[in-house]
# Entry
Amino acid sequence: MGQLANLSPSTKDSLWDLTFKIAAALRSLVTGGGSGSSGGAVSNATSKSTAQENARLVVAGASGLRCFDICIYNNKATDQWVQVFDSASAAAEGAVPSLVLFAPAQFQASFSWPTGRPFTAGIYVCNSSTDVTKTIGSADCLFDINYRG
# Structure
């Protein structure tokens, strides 16, 4: 529990930042503070939007790729879906995603996999006006994805 006690939240931390600090501390507890059975520090990377967007290629062609957290902010006035593809490049329109996440209107949603969700080719995320096939939407989302690979 020492990891959770050492979070050191600041009044300058946003809810977004605190969510990731807590998720990282919980992940460290679940994995024994390391990456797999070898122990040691988990070396994760983050792919963050710097402006509103409709898609993001998070990482391509990494060995042992795992996604730990996806945080989404939907700035649109209507609900939409965020689709996650196991792909090293942008998925084609009409493609079927590996994972579909609901993104309510003007709402932040966060999804976590403490031990990581495995991907083989890469991680590509996009918003979509349809749930089970890609129909790219407008640039009105912020993505924050924590992964290792």
In short: The longest strand covers residues 107-118.
